[in-house]
Design goal:
The protein is α/β, with parallel strands linked by helices. It is 44% helix and 18% strand. Strand 4, helix 5 and strand 5 form a beta-alpha-beta unit.
């Protein structure tokens, strides 16, 4: 579980709490208004839900996903857009079956607070994966890996940040390129357009 300073897209809180604060100030000046009060309540609840999902909820989903994955001996794993390494850390208990786990990112603080290769390296050093993790600065659109290299590729809340869809499609094709023929691919992302991910992967 992360702190609020490390949550995903922290700027998103401004879109919930900012308007709520403005409406609240307006009510203090002009008097109580039921509709305005409801708007403030809804915005605050949405903001709190956003925080909960980023700080707690997504970790539960990741844990559930990893618990359902069976790794063969000496698996090579890629975390495409690893951020603070949350997805990689879920493999702590399966470290014995991992030969190498590579995390790549462009280390954007816009998409994730306090995001840096140094910060993630420090987190990894305190895990069972310390001697197996390699972190690299790389873009999913141009990954410096060979074809058919990884037994498992995971990607969490990354693809929706790649715009427009044609670039997301190119990212998926590149992911498919480095995945072994009988490898596994897990994409955890926001719901919209996810059906296109499947069609793109199958067509690649």
């Amino acid at each position: 579980m992360k702190s609020i300073w490390e949550m995903d897209a922290p700027i998103g809180l401004v879109f919930f709490f900012g308007p709520a604060l403005i409406i609240g100030i307006m009510m203090l000046i002009s008097g109580f208004n039921t509709v305005s009060a409801i708007m403030v309540l809804v915005l605050v609840l949405c903001g709190l839900k956003y925080m909960h999902t980023s700080i707690i909820g997504k970790y539960r989903i990741m844990k559930s996903i990893v618990n359902s994955i069976h790794l063969k001996k000496d698996s090579k794993i890629l975390d495409a857009g690893c951020g603070h390494g949350a997805f990689m850390l879920q493999f702590n208990r399966q470290a014995a079956n991992i030969s190498e786990i590579i995390g790549i990112d462009i280390w954007s603080n816009k998409d994730q607070g306090s995001n840096s290769i140094a910060a993630t390296q420090k987190i990894m050093e305190n895990s069972n994966l310390a001697d197996k993790v390699k972190l690299k600065t790389a873009n999913i659109l141009n990954m410096p890996f060979n074809d058919n290299e990884f037994d498992l590729i995971v990607s969490s809340l990354v693809l929706h940040n790649i715009k427009p869809f044609e670039k997301r499609k190119a990212a998926l094709v590149n992911i498919a390129r480095v995945q072994k023929q009988k490898g596994q691919l897990v994409i955890m992302d926001i719901g919209y357009e996810t059906s296109k991910y499947v069609r793109t992967r199958c067509a690649s």
